[in-house]
Design goal:
single chain; alpha+beta; HSP40/DNAj peptide-binding domain; two-stranded antiparallel ribbon; about 15% helix; about 30% strand; elongated
Length: about 60
């Protein structure tokens, strides 16, 4: 498996990605990170969205 292009730390399980770069990006996609996994790679550009450990713990405590 290839390494992620870029890793972005987030504090929510819901993220959106458009690839950045304006016209050089891709269609905006809305993604949901599963707290038990803790990260998600964008299917278009390969950016990895990684859930901050505090947010991961909080989401697990609330059963999301």
């Amino acid at each position: 498996m290839a390494e992620p292009v870029e890793t972005i730390k987030v504090d929510t399980t819901h993220v959106n990605c458009d690839g950045g770069g304006g016209a050089l990006g891709h269609p905006r996609v809305y993604l949901q990170i599963k707290p038990e996994i803790g990260h998600l790679d964008c299917p278009y550009c390969g950016r990895r969205y990684e859930l901050d450990q505090r947010a991961k713990a909080g989401a697990s405590a609330h059963g999301h």
